[in-house]
Design brief:
6 strands; three-stranded mixed beta sheet; alpha+beta; 15% strand; Nucleotide Exchange Factor Grpe, Chain A, domain 2
């Protein structure tokens, strides 16, 4: 019996050793898996940090580019405005020249009709210049009073029902620039 007991004890010891070896192997496997997971997590963290850094850099560059764009467009707008007014003045200068020639001719001329004719030529040239720059006269003749285009400076009693609300006289012409009123026509209205 003692042999059997010894053999049973030996079997138990062997089983215990085997279990210990299996547990050690499991622990080593789990430790290796944890180390791999930890290394993978650290690698992923590094990748995310790199992506964040790249995104921040791209954002910073985009923002700087946008600021430069804003400055450039403001400068371009100022140049356009400056050059646009330059073009208008370049077209007005020949009209001034015509007036100067007309004044010189008026000093030497004895014929009033030729002076009138010269003034009408300058006037027509100036009106044509305004039309070329989209400045148009507001029509008032036989028109109904419209507060969008006319300014009533006085009202007089209408002589007939048909005249009520109509413009009787224009005291000062009005003008539009690209269909926007830049000066209202000052008119007398019948009531």
């Amino acid at each position: 019996m003692s042999n059997k007991k010894e053999q049973t004890k030996e079997n138990e010891v062997e089983e215990a050793l085997e279990n210990t070896n299996v547990n050690d192997e499991c622990n080593e496997t789990e430790g290796a898996a944890e180390a791999q997971d930890e290394a993978a997590a650290e690698s992923e963290v590094e990748q995310l940090k790199k992506q964040i850094s790249e995104i921040q850099d791209a954002h910073l560059r985009l923002r700087a580019e946008f600021e430069n764009y804003k400055k450039r467009t403001i400068k371009e707008k100022a140049e356009i405005i400056k050059s646009a007014s330059e073009g208008v003045f370049m077209n007005i200068i020949p009209l001034v020249d015509d007036f100067e020639r007309g004044i010189q001719a008026a000093e030497k001329a004895s014929d009033v009709e030729s002076i009138k004719e010269g003034l009408m030529l300058i006037y027509d040239k100036f009106v044509k210049f305004l039309e070329q720059n989209n400045v148009k006269e507001i029509d008032t003749k036989d028109q109904t009073f419209d507060t969008d285009f006319h300014e009533a400076i006085t009202a007089i009693p209408a002589q007939s029902e048909e005249q009520k609300g109509k413009i009787i006289d224009c005291v000062q012409k009005g003008y539009t620039l690209n269909d926007k009123v830049i000066r209202y026509a000052k008119v007398v209205v019948a009531q």
